[in-house]
Amino acid sequence: MRRLFLLLLAAPLAAQTAVKHPDISGTWVLDVAKVTVDGPIPAPTAATYLVGTHGDSITVLVKMTDATGDATLNKIWATDGYSWNNSRTYQGNTISLSSVLKWNGPVLAIATTI
């Protein structure tokens, strides 16, 4: 009887853990009206993100349009709180992007420094 009781207690705890980090895989479309930019590079005028999750790793294929035209970017991140480096080309220059990703409950926060 005690074993059954412990299993019943463990099931709700496992369900809570699953909700903490939702699967964000899929195709996402940027809501341009909600973008804020603090810096010289303007926000994209349109963007689609194809996101894949593999444990704590996230891969993102970005197809975007901005003032310089269309661009495709591949990003690889992990949600471990450490800095992950990617790059992109903007007006003929390669720009380094340093991103830190952390889960805050069910919300994934991404801070990128250029």
Task: Describe this protein's structure.
It contains one helix and seven strands. The chain has one helix at 2-20, and strands at residues 26-29, 46-54, 57-66, 69-78, 83-90, 93-104, 107-113. Strands 1-2-3-4 form a four-stranded antiparallel beta sheet, with no helix packed on it. Strands 5-6-7 form a three-stranded antiparallel beta sheet, with no helix packed on it. It is globular. It starts with a helix and ends with a strand. The relative contact order is 0.14.
Compact summary:
By secondary structure, the protein is of the alpha+beta class.
Task: Please tag this protein with its features.
globular; 53% strand; alpha+beta; three-stranded antiparallel sheet; 114 residues; 1 helix; disordered N terminus; four-stranded antiparallel sheet
Relative strand content? over 45%
Question: Helicity level, as a percent range?
Answer: 10-25%
Largest sheet data: 4 strands, antiparallel
Structural class: alpha+beta
Whole-number radius of gyration?
18 Å
User: What is the number of helical segments per DSSP (H or I, 4+ residues)?
Assistant: 1
Q: Please give the order of strands in the largest beta sheet.
A: 1-2-3-4
Low-confidence stretches: 1-13, 15-19
- Give the SSE order as H and E letters: HEEEEEEE
Straight-line N-to-C gap: 58 Å
Task: Count the beta strands.
Answer: 7
User: Could you tell me the mean pLDDT?
Assistant: 81
CA-based shape: globular
